[in-house]
Amino acid sequence: MRSISRTALGTAIAAVLAATAAVPSMAGAPGNGTPAEKRPLTGSSAAATARGGQGAVVTLVTGDRVLVTEGPSGRSSAVPLPAADGSTPLVQTRQAGKDLYVYPEGAAAAIAAGRVDQELFNVTGLVRQGYDDAHHDGRRPHLPSG
């Protein structure tokens, strides 16, 4: 009896796998009719600006750059931009009301220890104060040495 049960189970699993592999994907293009190959990659800077919000590039005190956009709902999002060497920094984001904080991996220990004010990473606040890359003269808040 046991071998019949295993055989039946194996046959059933094989049939389900064959059926799902044979059925073409039902996922189509989004409602706007844009073909998949023309849509920007999720999480890319092109995707962030394609969502309809105007983007602002902010250079953080760590030197990491992020593209900040505001969606139709008023909620902000940020996408890290590649560094000069082509690597993309790892960041964590936190939404607090209308403020969006972007914490680069390299600053996590200093923030957790209280050595760095987390408001330096409030990217929506930095944009409001004119510290985005388009509106400042090259100077930005910086970490004091020592």
Short description:
The protein has helices at residues 2-22, 45-50, 108-112, 123-128, and strands at 56-59, 65-70, 76-80, 91-96, 99-104. With 146 residues, it is an alpha+beta fold.
Explain what this protein looks like in three dimensions:
This protein has 146 residues and is of the alpha+beta class. It has a domain at 40-128. It has four helices and five strands. The strands form two sheets. The chain has a three-stranded antiparallel sheet with strand order 1-2-3. A hairpin with a 2-residue loop joins strand 4 (91-96) and strand 5 (99-104). The mean pLDDT is 77.
Average pLDDT level: 77
Q: Roughly how much helix do the residues carry, as a percent range?
A: 25-40%
Number of helices: 4
Class by SSE composition:
alpha+beta
Question: Stretches where pLDDT falls below 50 for ≥5 residues?
Answer: none
Oligomeric form: single chain
Order of helices and strands: HHEEEEEHH
Cα end-to-end separation = 77 Å
Strand residue percentage: 15-25%
Q: What is the overall silhouette?
A: elongated
Radius of gyration from the alpha-carbon trace, in angstroms: 23 Å
Q: Please list the strands of the largest sheet in the order they lie side by side.
A: 1-2-3
